[in-house]
């Protein structure tokens, strides 16, 4: 896989997260950028217009957030672009955009303290935008029903602080996975209250007992497998058919001797996504290719049984990235040194 081009766009603020805005247009590419001003302590979400031919990434519209963005997603709701964001204050915001000019049309919110007493570490939006799930370091999980005028939520679970959640991802309209400390993963069915329906905690080496999963992903065609990335460059998969056997793809614990697996990073893996750009073996036992970004500035592709591919190596952390659903050769990522990078693959 070859990289055709990389363009970097400096920002005057720290970039907390980036996402492609899913608007189907042959003439326009739009990106959602969560920004934080270190001097004024102000946060915002901006929609940017991208023109690769003219090497420009210009802000279209902006929305001021009451506190720093902790998680950002973009999807559709009733054929309108929808942005959902959780904040360090524990609030949740849904921003509806006008598909004709990409401006912010309206918003509905749940105020600080209503869902979480600490930052909502992660939020995920169900395809179609009818509901989202939030997970927090306070051990609370919430299911939020969405309309264009209000939000209704119910508490799914409260660990009373005994468990902290760092990531959440839908698997189906009724099932989702969560991740946390110690490389633990939980599988939930919100039709079955009281706790997770399945719990993954492998017999890790001692150095992994304090590890954290920062990001998880579930492929729509492989809903039985959860992909996870976290501390020490660790990327692994949990297949529900083999409950306690992690499939190590990269990281400090990725085997030794003849079974050694080359690791693409040895630092924190901040985000992991299945890479739909790569066509791979369709065997149901083979983990589909994935893309990761890391604290040591690596954006790369991992495929089970293959040498990892380094797409980008920066002198600073790459904190988040997103693969364009309509043009999976295009990847947007946020750089710790106040910049957005766009990478185009062949």
UniProtKB/TrEMBL annotation:
InterPro entries the UniProt entry points to: WD40/YVTN_repeat-like_dom_sf, WD40_repeat_dom_sf
Keyword Membrane among record annotations: no
Keywords for this protein: Nucleus, Repeat, WD repeat
Protein's UniProt keywords contain Nucleus: yes
GO cellular component: nuclear pore outer ring
Organism for this UniProt entry: Psophocarpus tetragonolobus
Protein name, per record: Nuclear pore complex protein NUP43
Subcellular location(s) per record: Nucleus
């Amino acid at each position: 896989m070859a990289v055709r081009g990389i363009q970097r766009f400096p920002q005057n603020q720290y970039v907390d997260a980036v996402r492609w805005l899913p608007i189907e247009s042959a003439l326009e590419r739009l990106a959602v950028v969560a920004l934080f001003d270190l001097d004024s302590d102000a946060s915002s979400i901006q929609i940017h217009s991208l023109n690769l031919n003219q090497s420009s990434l210009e802000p279209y519209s902006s929305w001021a957030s009451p506190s720093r963005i902790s998680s950002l997603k973009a999807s559709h709701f009733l054929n309108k672009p929808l942005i959902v964001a959780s904040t360090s204050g524990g609030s949740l915001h849904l921003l509806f955009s006008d598909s004709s000019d990409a401006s912010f049309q309206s918003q509905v919110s749940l105020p600080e303290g209503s869902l979480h007493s600490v930052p909502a570490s992660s939020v995920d939006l169900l395809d179609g935008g009818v509901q989202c799930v939030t997970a927090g370091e306070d051990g609370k999980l919430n299911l939020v029903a969405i309309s264009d005028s209000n939000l209704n939520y119910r508490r799914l679970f409260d660990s009373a602080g005994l468990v902290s959640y760092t990531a959440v991802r839908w698997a189906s309209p009724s099932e989702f996975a969560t991740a946390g400390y110690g490389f633990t993963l939980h599988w939930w069915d919100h039709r079955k209250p009281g706790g997770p329906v399945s719990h993954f905690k492998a017999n890790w080496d001692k150095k992994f007992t304090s590890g954290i999963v920062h990001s998880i992903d579930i492929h729509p065609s492989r809903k039985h497998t959860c992909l996870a990335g976290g501390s020490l460059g660790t990327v692994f998969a949990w297949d529900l058919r083999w409950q306690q056997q992690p499939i190590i793809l990269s990281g400090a614990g990725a085997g030794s001797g003849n079974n050694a697996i080359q690791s693409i990073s040895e630092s924190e893996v901040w985000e992991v996504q299945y890479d739909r750009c790569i066509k791979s073996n369709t065997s149901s036992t083979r983990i589909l290719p994935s893309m990761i970004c890391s604290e040591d500035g690596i954006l790369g592709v991992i495929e089970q049984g293959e040498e990892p591919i380094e797409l980008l190596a920066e002198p600073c952390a790459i904190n988040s990235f997103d693969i364009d659903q309509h043009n999976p050769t295009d990847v947007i990522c946020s750089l710790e040194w106040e910049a957005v990078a766009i990478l185009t693959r062949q």
